[in-house]
Amino acid sequence: MTETAPPLRVGIVVFDEVEVLDCCGPFEVFSVANRVAARHGRRAPFEVGMLATTPEVVARGGLVLRAHAVLGEAPAPDVLVVAGGVTDAAERDAALLDWLAVAAETARLTASVCTGAFLLAEAGILGGQRVTTHWEDQAELARRFPSLHVESGVRWVRDGDVFTSGGISAGIDLALHLVEVLGGRDLALGTARQMEYRWIEAPAAPAAPLG
């Protein structure tokens, strides 16, 4: 993106029983990237916010998160990020799924963290792509959506303009990769350094130790 372009709107979709790090990890990455950019005299490249069907959601472990906007009341995101967690109820939320389908049509990039891939699949956004999710859920994703090519042993997968990541901490690695794609490698490296995070840059790095 150029210095004269407006900030890219990053919408992180959350819901009751969302995994805390699935949403807060990417949120931290994009917000820190803004601070790093400002330190170097650049305008903020991202406008990041949490989006939900209700003003507040209760994450796993009981953490209460207040959404920046309710779905449908905010501008469509340029970058759509769907967090994971316990998605059973969210997968039955027709309003959420319909909104995701529409938002993905206009988003520049669409991404999921962990079991957020199930929401993308239920919304009809995934079909025939290479994808991944948390290692515990890969077999279930493949069983329920046989057209998908579910990959194991990876931190994230990119297929076209759709990105999916493994579980929990893998969402941070993917978010840093998205910062690199959208804002440049120097910004991504500076963000990881500011976060004191050892960025696993290679998507083929193991998603989690098995056994």
UniProtKB/TrEMBL annotation:
SUPFAM superfamilies: Class I glutamine amidotransferase-like
The DJ-1/PfpI domain, residue ranges: 9-180
Superkingdom, taxonomy of origin: Bacteria
GO-annotated biological processes: regulation of DNA-templated transcription
A Pfam family this chain is assigned to: DJ-1_PfpI
InterPro entries per UniProt: Class_I_gatase-like, DJ-1/PfpI, INH-QAR
Protein name: DJ-1/PfpI family protein
Lineage, uppermost ranks: Bacteria, Bacillati, Actinomycetota, Actinomycetes, Micrococcales
